[in-house]
Design a protein that fits this description.
single chain; mainly alpha; 225 residues
Length: 225
Amino acid sequence: MTTNPAVVSTAPVIRRKWLRPVLSGVVSLVIVVGIFWYFIPQFTSMSKVWSEIRGMTGVAIATLALAALWNLATYLFVMVGATPGLKYRQAFVATETSTAVSNTLPGGGAVGIALTYAMFGSWGFSRSRTSVSLVVAGIWNNFAKLGMPVLALSLLALQGKPSGGRVVAAAIGFGALIAAVVALTALLKSEATARRLGLIAAAVANRILRVLGKPPVHGWELATV
């Protein structure tokens, strides 16, 4: 009895095709279960959260749902705009997975970035293309976050007199936003300026690391260039 070579050669390929979605689904399920049954209950009571939701009006729930959907959509727009060729479905998977892991797991930020690189690589994007996407998206996300205190202060000023602490928080956020814009402008001005900023950042980091007894960093000027 002979075996068809074509059938034998294609068997591993077929096995990998169905094995990868199954493993992805299992990993996703484990992450979701870990988030809702282990990590979130450490910081809040799910029963209290549910009781608060049940006490909300229909208008409040609808407003909260629309705000949540808009929050998800804005991340998709940024990722697709910063990564030519990326589909909205892929952007949704990448942003939701990395955000869920980053906000719940210990050291989740590093794990989230690693997951993003893995997912982008599986979709055919190179590491350099993924790095550019993460940097561009991160810059604009941080600009938006730094600008939020200013917007919040403006809304509070329309409703009444804001407290001193809120004014200080808004002022700090506005100052950080200006500093970030100035730093980005200088970074994009020339290679010499980018190298200088990298050396300055490395010098500041090395002073902090020296106090903590950690080894110094190297090559930051190459990264900024």
